[in-house]
Amino acid sequence: MQVASQTTLQDSPTADETAFSRQSLLGLNLEEVEEIVTSQGLPRFRARQLWRRVWRHGQTDFGDMTELGKDARDKLSAVCQADRPMITNRQTSKDGTIKWLIRCDDGQEAEMVYIPEDDRGTLCISSQIGCTLTCSFCHTGTQRLVRNLTAAEITGQVLLAMDELGDWPAGKEERRLTNIVLMGMGEPLYNYESVKKALSLIMWGEGLGLSKRRVTLSTSGIVPEIEKCGDELGVNLAISLHAVHDELRNELVPINRKYDLKTLIDCVRRYPVLSNARRVTWEYVMIKGVNDSPEDARRLVKLIKGIPSKINLIPFNKWPGSDYECSSDEAIDAFAKIVMKAGYASPVRKPRGQDILAACGQLKSESVRLRKSQMAALQQAAK
After folding, report:
1. Which residues are catalytic?
2. Which of 271, 334, 362, 378 is exposed most, by the fewest CB atoms within 10 A?
3. pLDDT surpasses 80 at 136
């Protein structure tokens, strides 16, 4: 039987001061790269060559970028770099899911997860280290917000995954990474400007060229930024809903106290790219005895009436310290049938990576990791 594997990498020596002073190319658009290139007395066209080496071929070593010429390589390597975040821990689930713990230059850590499926490979990336929202069912919500990730740290997760999966050059056939979801650590719309820049780079045709139809942003309901996201990015939208009345959602998703269900639903109705071909996804964690009754299902159908939608039913994933339990298979099935009868697709998300705490709601990057006994118990429960 296949079991989870884990690799912990030893801390590397502290990078020297010159490494930290070099500008990361991973968060810069082409115009900004041109400014760096011309500041070194190099012709502007070198910027596009450099861009292609980084974004189309995934190169990080200037010595490999031979089309730039030695003089250009020497000058540019002294002022900029394309380094990835450091991997400090890599875990592979028995179901093939991979979770990486990555370390930023300041020593802070975040997590990202790759989920392989028959028809796609989805990378779940983080936008913050920690989270401010304190959703009661979510493990990440128990970790205080440390800071926002920069655009370079967000794109760095994607480029790092492509390194690990052997997906260069960008756009090649049979690539393993086909979809990106912002469903990792943090609320992406509380870091909107960095997320916007990172996604714009990832989706640009001369970068990775990932279609906006293959990018999904998940939010707990930050209404003003939802409208910006629709107008400026046009990516797929997922709403972390989990309750169908304000009293319960105030408890499960506390941001609801600021943007209540009516305000949120009205905002989603106006999201510009919605159609029968591009539906909003309502994420709904199934919690035993809390939000899983047939009446909850009927109220959900009524709540989203008229919005092109699909409903993603997510069995609650247990994490250490949580008092919640997952709904029974029978309750989830009954809930799904009510939703489907009303005409909405309602797939039940198969939990992935539970044995390595990589499933929905389980990500957390505290420096104090789980004790071995806790991890063993979770791995046994996931078998």
Report:
1. 111, 360
2. 334
3. no
